[in-house]
Q: What sequence folds into this?
């Protein structure tokens, strides 16, 4: 039914762009973990000059050659970056901005020069600046999909090595892994994805396809495999939204829509992701505060004091939970409340001992909701701390 | 666009003047960005001001006018706060990724606004990407009877404003750039200076935006300062050279684009890149060529000194023989031309000058061995390698100190005598 409504070509292109989004997200996940996000940006800006040169050399708009040209100048841009770091005293940030701007300037000069001469087919070149999938044919789409799926396959195959190098370079090197080779492979994959992503997002914004989906995925999980999969999924979604959006609004380039879709996913993730998201952290902080206030209240009632000032909310909750009863002379603890207060006092006591004898363990495990030490610290270690505390006494 | 009509030539001149006027404040702000390692903030701001500019234009502002400047500053501050918020709030995401998220999103938003509102505003995506320096001469305001391009006036005013602000706060800026901790300890408003730099970047970006487009502004900001830093060291020299480079590149880039029939924006960036490349190659002190030549000169001197020392030891009847073979031949020829060795039927022989030079080197070597043997707990066979390296690098002053410490008459740890200090040969620094 969809096929009846949408031209075949559009469907093929959408499928290819979805594959590009998937692969870009997967490669980008490892690029972000390895802190290579900006290398992708430099490669992206550098690709334009190669696309334009390939167009001048072949004289027509053959996507395969244009992408090969883009890949060559992307890698040349990265090589220039390495050379500047190695042989000049220009600092990293300036080197990055310089290489990025100058390589893009060369691309812009070539593209505007070609456009000004009105060479046949040259209008299509500007699509590589901000991305435009409308001009992509079914054959081009197949090429893009094959490259993208190849990159995704390589990431899957090399996931263990890439993860190891990203998280513990020193260990990987000491264990005899070819860190330099793995890094080179990652940078190569980044350059390939940047170039393959050009038709979808353009030289200016394609880096976002590599960076934003992984940042969104990072909010949901701590496992690399899951993050890579999620980043691929987010990349696919944003790429599809981009294709649809630019098809609906005339003259709207694909790249910006892709980026905004990815950014929306990232914003939702940053707010709503369980554990890491803003909402979840806020809720955890509130829970901790409530527990703290309750402990405060129970402790002062157990001492026979009046409820502390500002404990109205805690008092209401404790009354509802049956921990506190309203007596004639004020509030008193129920049997459950007494037990809870005793338990709390015991835990405070235990943590005070741990703080005195093993402050590092306390710093690592003590949270504001005052958990039972036995629940958070390893049993053997806890016994060690206890015996140390005994000796001190 | 035939250049024969005087009117057209004058519009080219005005365009060049505008390019130079815009490049100057960009280079000034860029000097501080580069010195404070904030180049990428400049890049991010240059991308991120786009939605601010577009909204200001939609609200009735004119590209390059006051309203767009306010919009750009607002957008820059919003982006900087977003990037800070993302970086400080999300665990596991690096600062680079956070910046990458922030500025691409803002730029994408700007492009979408431009695309959707293209029919209503005086902006399109080409202008966003390339600027419209070529047309700047036609957007004029009358000043004292002359039609002056707006871009030129904006550039000049910004240059004056930024220049004045920098002159008034130069000491503070230098301190904040090179020792922010000390600046904070002295009570300088380092955060305030950063915000001022942010605002300055946003303002110059608006001017650069009209001239070369949103993506290439970063080149006008960073490249002149990066090239200048290779050539000179003191920050006010860097600023002056950066302004000169930026203005020259603006003019040359425009002329090159005109001759090659392409856009000025890209060519200005390419010229700036070329200037940087040349500076990196030929900078007097830190240039690639200077350092390569220095390395070659050092190796050549070491080779000659090693030859002299080996010949001296051979004459002493010790362990070493006079070097022979093809590798030693050019060294010996050179030394012969200097008058340090002469050819005899049995091989190369030191002349009196050569013997004096060789004795200096051997003296350095053996003094160092003696000092090491006395002061450092090293086995005997470990004394030679460091001495072999150090002998080429110590002068008479260090030798005098070493001699005083080890006692002048002693032998080296291998039992060979240390030759006496020979008088410095004429015309040689060492």
A:
């Amino acid at each position: 039914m969809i096929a009846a409504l949408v031209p075949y070509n559009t469907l093929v292109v959408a499928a290819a762009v979805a594959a590009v989004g998937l692969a870009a997200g997967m490669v980008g996940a490892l690029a972000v973990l390895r802190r290579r996000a900006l290398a992708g940006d430099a490669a992206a800006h550098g690709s334009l000059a190669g696309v334009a040169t390939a167009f001048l050399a072949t004289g027509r708009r053959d996507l395969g050659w244009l992408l090969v040209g883009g890949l060559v100048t992307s890698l040349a841009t990265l090589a220039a970056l390495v050379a500047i770091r190695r042989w000049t005293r220009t600092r990293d940030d300036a080197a990055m901005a310089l290489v990025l701007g100058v390589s893009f300037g060369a691309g812009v000069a070539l593209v505007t020069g070609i456009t000004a001469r009105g060479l046949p087919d040259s209008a299509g070149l500007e699509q590589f600046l901000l991305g435009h999938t409308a001009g992509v044919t079914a054959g081009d789409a197949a090429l893009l999909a094959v490259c993208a799926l190849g990159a995704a396959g390589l990431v899957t195959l090399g996931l263990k090595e890439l993860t190891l190098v990203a998280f513990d370079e020193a260990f990987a090197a000491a264990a005899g892994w070819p860190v330099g080779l793995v890094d080179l492979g990652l940078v190569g994959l980044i350059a390939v994805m940047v170039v393959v992503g050009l038709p979808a997002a353009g030289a200016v914004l394609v880096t976002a396809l590599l960076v934003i989906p992984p940042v969104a995925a990072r909010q949901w999980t701590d496992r690399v495999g899951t993050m890579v999969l999620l980043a691929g999924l987010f990349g696919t979604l944003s790429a599809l939204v981009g294709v649809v959006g630019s098809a609906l609004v005339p003259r709207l380039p694909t790249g910006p829509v892709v980026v905004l879709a990815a950014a929306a996913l990232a914003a939702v993730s940053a707010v709503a992701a369980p554990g890491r998201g803003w909402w979840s952290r806020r809720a955890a902080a509130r829970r901790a505060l409530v527990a703290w206030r309750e402990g405060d209240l129970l402790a002062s009632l157990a001492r026979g004091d009046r409820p502390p000032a500002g404990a109205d909310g805690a008092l209401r909750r404790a009354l509802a939970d049956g921990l506190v009863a309203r007596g004639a002379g004020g509030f008193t603890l129920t049997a459950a409340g007494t037990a809870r207060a005793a338990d709390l006092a015991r835990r405070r006591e235990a943590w005070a001992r741990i703080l005195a004898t093993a402050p590092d363990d306390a710093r690592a495990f003590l949270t504001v909701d005052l958990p039972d030490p036995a629940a958070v610290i390893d049993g053997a270690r806890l016994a060690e701390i206890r015996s140390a505390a005994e000796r001190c006494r | 666009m035939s250049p024969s009509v005087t009117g057209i030539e004058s519009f080219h001149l005005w365009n060049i003047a505008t390019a130079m006027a815009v490049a100057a404040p960009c280079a000034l702000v860029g000097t501080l960005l580069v010195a404070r390692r904030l180049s990428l903030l400049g890049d991010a701001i240059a991308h991120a001001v786009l939605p601010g500019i577009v909204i200001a234009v939609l609200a009735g502002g004119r590209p390059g006018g006051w309203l767009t400047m306010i919009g750009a500053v607002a957008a820059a501050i919003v982006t900087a706060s977003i990037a800070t918020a993302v970086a400080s709030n999300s665990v596991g995401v690096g600062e680079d990724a956070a910046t990458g998220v922030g500025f691409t999103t803002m730029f994408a938003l700007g492009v979408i606004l431009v695309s959707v509102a293209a029919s209503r505003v005086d902006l399109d995506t080409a202008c966003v990407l390339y600027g419209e320096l070529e047309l700047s001469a036609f957007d004029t305001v009358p000043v004292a009877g002359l039609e002056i391009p707006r871009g030129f006036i904006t550039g000049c005013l910004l240059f004056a404003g930024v220049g004045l602000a920098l002159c008034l706060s130069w000491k503070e800026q230098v301190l904040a750039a090179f020792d922010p901790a000390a600046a904070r300890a002295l009570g300088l408003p380092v955060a305030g200076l950063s915000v001022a730099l942010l605002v300055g970047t946003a303002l110059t970006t608006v001017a650069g935006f009209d001239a070369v487009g949103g993506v290439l502004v970063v080149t006008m900001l960073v490249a002149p300062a990066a090239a200048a830093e290779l050539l000179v060291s003191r920050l006010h020299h860097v600023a002056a050279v950066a302004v000169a480079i930026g203005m020259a590149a603006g003019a040359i880039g425009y002329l090159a684009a005109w001759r090659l029939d392409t856009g000025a924006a890209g060519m200005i960036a390419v010229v700036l890149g070329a200037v940087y490349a040349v500076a990196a190659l030929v900078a007097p002190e830190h240039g690639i060529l200077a350092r390569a030549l220095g390395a070659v000169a050092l190796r050549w001197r070491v080779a000659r000194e090693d030859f002299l020392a080996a010949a001296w030891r051979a004459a002493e009847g010790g362990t070493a023989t006079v070097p022979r073979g093809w590798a030693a031949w050019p060294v010996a020829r050179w030394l012969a031309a200097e008058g340090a060795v002469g050819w005899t039927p049995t091989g190369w022989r030191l002349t009196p000058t050569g013997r004096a030079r060789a004795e200096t080197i051997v003296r350095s070597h053996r003094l160092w061995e003696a000092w090491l043997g006395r002061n450092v707990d090293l086995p005997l066979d470990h004394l030679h390698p460091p001495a072999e390296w150090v002998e080429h690098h110590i002068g008479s002053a260090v030798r005098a100190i070493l001699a005083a410490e080890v006692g002048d008459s002693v032998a080296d740890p291998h039992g060979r005598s240390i030759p006496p200090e020979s008088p410095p040969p004429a015309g040689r620094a060492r």
Notes: Chain A has 18 helices and two strands. Chain A has a mean pLDDT of 87.
